[in-house]
Amino acid sequence: MSPSTALNVTPARWSLSISPETDASLREYLGAQGMKKGDLSRFVEEAVRWRMMDETVQGIKQRNADQSDADLQALIDEALDAVRHP
Predict the structure, then answer these.
(1) Which of the 8 DSSP states describes residue 67?
(2) H or E stretch covering 65
(3) CA–CA distance, 44 with 66 (Å, rounded to integer)
(4) How does pLDDT run across 20-61, given as a tens digit for each residue?
(5) How far apart are CA 1 and CA 60, in angstroms?
(6) Residue 45's CB: how many other CB atoms inside 10 A?
(7) Centroid of chain to Cα 1
(8) What angle do CA 61, 63, 69 make, to 5 degrees?
């Protein structure tokens, strides 16, 4: 169930333009996975979410590249403690 379905919100509609090769490859892939026509939207939404998360993670890694492992662990421990004991 997508977040918009769970909240009973009308999903946004996108108009996308992709190459015919990508379209054919994706539809072939989805078909091989047993997916149906409506699964294309779910696939795209999952891909977009994954990409946004990946770019966020890469940015955090770059931002913290000069930190020592001990300093990073201390920051993680501090954040976890703040969440566990507000």
Answers:
(1) S
(2) none
(3) 35
(4) 999 999 999 999 999 887 889 999 999 999 999 999 999 999
(5) 29
(6) 16
(7) 15
(8) 60
